[in-house]
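Board notes (copied after class):
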Amino acid sequence: MARHDLYIERGICDWMQAVKQLIWWLIAGSEGGVNRGRIIETLKKNPSNANQLSESLKLDYKTIRHHLDVLTKNNLVTTMGGSYGKMFFLSPMLDQDYGIFEEIWARIGKNEVKGEKHEDVNK
């Protein structure tokens, strides 16, 4: 393997590790992570606006907006459209590395959702 290829491979590994750490922190390591995981899972299946997410996840609109803001600021979600009816999508970064999310979600998130431990307390 050429030295250049090694640097590229190392950079990809560093990138994937950074993405994994970010997802761990936002889903498993911070309050409200289960709700953020539910939002990510829903957006993967169907891009939605905040109101649609609120209805489908049975969470308060303000709670959804808070989590969408967190996910957007951390480049896991992107938007399109104006303020009312703005559509949310997975970012290209998260879409490309969705397997990392699935791995983490399978370990922590789905267990809590199945047990109905998620709460709507503006987390």
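Comment from the instructor: The helical segments are 3-28, 33-45, 50-57, 61-73, 92-96, 98-114. Residues 54 and 64 are 6 Å apart (CA to CA).
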